[in-house]
Automatic annotation (TrEMBL), chain A:
Residues 290-406 form the ABC3 transporter permease C-terminal domain. Keywords: Cell membrane, Membrane, Transmembrane, Transmembrane helix. It comes from Robiginitalea aurantiaca. It is found in: Cell membrane. The chain crosses the membrane at residues 21-41, 286-311, 331-357, 377-397. Pfam families: FtsX, MacB_PCD. It is a multi-pass membrane protein. Belongs to the ABC-4 integral membrane protein family. Its main location: membrane. This is ABC transporter permease. The lineage of its organism: Bacteria, Pseudomonadati, Bacteroidota, Flavobacteriia, Flavobacteriales. InterPro entries: ABC3_permease_C, MacB_PCD, Macrolide_Exporter_MacB. The keyword Transcription does not apply. Residues 21-239 form the MacB-like periplasmic core domain.
TrEMBL record, chain B:
SUPFAM superfamilies: P-loop containing nucleoside triphosphate hydrolases (SSF52540). GO terms for molecular function: ATP binding. InterPro entries: AAA+_ATPase, ABC_transporter-like_ATP-bd, ABC_transporter-like_CS, MacB-like_ATP-bd, P-loop_NTPase. Belongs to the ABC transporter superfamily. This is ABC transporter ATP-binding protein. Keywords: ATP-binding, Nucleotide-binding, Translocase, Transport.
């Protein structure tokens, strides 16, 4: 390996057989290049999907009531289920240990919102103080709805950042301004930000205020929770499923709903969805690996092929060298040494080029579900190693055969 | 230098066995210039290949400078070829992507001679065959005669005990052939042992001894008056 004479001999051969060297190198480099790009985009897809998911708190559980579809205990299907304050508070009391944050939500309907003379067409929601954690909103100015707001049924309001920009753009800060909801003034106390602008087009007021001022009674639209983090993902999913099932069972009982009626009460768990997504990205990763391995195999076959042709082409030269006193092993060594050098060199060239490309364009890729494609350096190095190794193994057999061919036969080869 | 006793060789051609050498007895002293003649199929090339350790005899004895050549594995054969023998082929067999100098230096590479010494020696032998100015040319840029001169220089470079030439003028016109023979004679004059396989009478008569092969046996072995090739060369 460190024989200087051998190196000189090889470099001379390479320098004088540029086309052959170039073609061998090209097949190896392009194989590695394609593989790395593929793996990179596989990772990009995982990143993208994971990103899509970070919008709500990952352990959140939501209850959406609907309309019954099954007859149960003499009650006809088609009945609308209405959640009540007591459903919410009773469940919370029984399950404090299992809940991290909890909030009910009510959609305030049939109200008009105005700021001065301007009519605002944004949804108004009554929520509890923990709602910001469940929605994963960030308070960028002022504060969110507080516990004392709920106790005092304060007429305060928190607006989304998009509303701030669209309506209060001329002010330094919208805090302290008043918004009228059906003629009743609400004081702006805070601004929140979301990952998506669409979700910033919402106004939050205290749930108690919403119920009392706008004729809500004790009705609520949704119940929402986040669960405390478990030690690992699978455990968290298991916890969420148990929580979800028990919550559904409880509500079904209270509202006399058939336990298997899915349209009456929908309980949705982000973790369960996450699991589905993660198994999807797992499949995508598997797919990209599959394609990648096929690419490697194609690369190996290509390199082996070229090695075979190279050795065949050099049969006569090998005969001459043997006649001049080259030992079989020195011929095998020479061919393999050259093969390893070319495959390794061009393999790393392909690797560097593809990694560079991923580094350069990766951060700018912002298509839905693809984000920051990148590749693990170890994986990439391993593939180069595999390709070099297989090129060597592929080169060995023809080299070995050529080195053991009778000199006379080899010299007769044209 | 070379001692051969009762050498037999046959080739398997399908179900038939072709007996090519049928008991050859043959000695060559140091410093001889021997022509081995015979029509095609007489076994002269087979004999040369066995002498050159490129092929193995079925039975018989072969001593090279007192050393028995028997049961050689590839590595040992390669070693002996490198140290004891120089080959000159009809089709030159130069490596086409190496320059004349590199071709001549190649046997020295396999002897483990250092790069610098290799090049000096190679240049010395190229000078001896009159191609010093052509040392950095590729074989494709040389004429047939020049290529064969390079091949002769290469065979000489390893300083072998015996030079083996297989139809070395077969691919050359007669003028060039005589030039090459002149070179061979001069090398022989320096004391080198040379075996030339040929089927050309005039080339054979430029040697000092002619061995006639026919159907695998030596039918004639005579010393002759050497014809100097220099008289044909201007």
């Amino acid at each position: 390996m460190f024989d200087l004479e051998r190196w000189q001999e090889i470099f001379e051969t390479i320098r004088k057989n540029k086309l052959r060297t170039f073609l061998t190198g090209l097949s190896v480099a392009s194989g590695i290049f394609i593989l790395v790009i593929l793996l990179g985009f596989g990772q990009g897809m995982r990143n993208g999907i994971a990103h899509e998911f970070e919008q709500d708190a990952s352990t959140s559980v939501w209850v959406w009531p609907g309309v019954t579809s099954k007859e149960f205990k003499g009650l006809n299907p088609g009945r609308r289920i209405q959640l009540r304050n007591e459903n919410y508070s009773k469940w919370n009391e029984q399950n404090t240990a299992r809940i991290e944050y909890n909030s009910a939500r009510i959609f305030v309907r049939d109200v008009s919102v105005t700021y001065g003379n301007e009519a605002l067409v944004y949804g108004v929601r009554g929520v509890h103080e923990d709602f910001q954690f469940i929605e994963n909103s960030r308070v960028s100015e002022g504060r969110f709805i507080s516990y004392s707001d709920l106790v005092n049924t304060s007429k305060v309001i928190v607006i989304g950042n998009k509303i701030k920009k669209d309506v209060f753009g001329h002010l330094d800060s919208p805090i302290g301004e008043y918004v009228d909801i059906s003629g009743i003034p609400f004081k702006i106390v805070g601004v929140f930000k979301e990952q998506r602008e669409r979700e910033e087009e919402t106004l939050y007021i205290p749930l108690t205020t919403a119920q009392r001022v706008f004729n809500g009674g004790d009705r609520i639209s949704n119940m929402s929770y986040t669960l405390p983090m478990a030690e690992n993902f699978d455990q968290a999913v298991a916890q969420a499923v148990v929580f979800k099932d028990e919550l559904k069972e409880y509500l079904s009982q209270v509202h006399t709903v058939h336990p298997e009626d899915d349209s009456a009460l929908e309980v949705w768990s982000a973790l369960e969805e996450a699991k589905r997504y993660y198994s999807l990205t797992g499949n995508i990763k598997f797919f990209f690996w599959f394609v990648g391995i096929c690419t490697i195999i194609a690369g190996v076959v290509g390199v082996s092929n070229i090695m075979l042709i190279v050795v065949k082409e050099r049969t006569r030269e090998i005969g001459i060298r043997k006649a001049l006193g080259a030992k079989p092993w020195s011929i095998i060594g020479m061919i393999l040494h050259e093969a390893v050098f070319i495959t390794a060199f061009s393999g790393f060239l392909g690797l560097i080029f593809s990694m560079l490309l991923l580094e350069l364009i990766g951060p700018h890729v912002e298509v839905d579900y693809i984000m920051n494609p990148s590749v693990d350096l170890n994986v990439a190095l391993t593939t180069v190693f595999v390709l070099v190794l297989s090129g060597t193994v592929a080169g060995f057999f023809p080299a070995w055969r050529a080195a053991n061919v009778q000199v006379i036969t080899a010299l007769r080869d044209e | 230098m070379i001692e051969i006793k009762d050498l037999h060789k046959s080739y398997q051609m399908g179900s038939n066995s072709l007996h090519v050498l049928k008991g050859i007895d043959f000695n060559v002293e140091a410093g001889e210039l021997v022509a081995i003649m015979g029509s095609s199929g007489s076994g002269k090339s087979t004999l040369l290949n066995i002498l050159g350790m490129l092929d193995v005899a079925d039975s018989g004895e072969y001593l090279l400078d007192g050393l028995p050549i028997k049961n050689l594995n590839e590595t040992k054969a390669a070693n002996y070829r490198n140290k004891f023998l120089g080959f000159i082929f009809q089709s030159f067999n130069l490596i086409n992507y190496k320059t004349a100098l590199e071709n001549v230096a190649l046997p020295l590479y396999y002897q483990g001679v250092g790069r610098k010494e290799r090049q000096e020696k190679a240049l010395k032998y190229l000078e001896q065959v009159g191609l010093k100015e052509w040392s950095h040319h590729l074989p494709s840029e040389l004429s047939g005669g020049q290529k064969q001169r390079v091949a002769v220089a290469r065979a000489m470079a390893a300083e072998p005990k015996v030079l083996l030439a297989d139809e070395l003028t077969g691919a050359l016109d007669s003028t060039t052939s005589y030039e090459i023979m002149d070179l061979i004679q001069k090398i022989n004059d320096l004391g080198n042992t040379i075996l030339v396989v040929t089927h050309e009478d005039d080339i054979a008569h430029m040697c000092k001894r002619i061995v006639h092969l026919k159907d695998g046996v030596i039918v004639e072995d005579k010393k002759i008056e050497q014809v100097r090739a220099s008289q044909y060369v201007q």
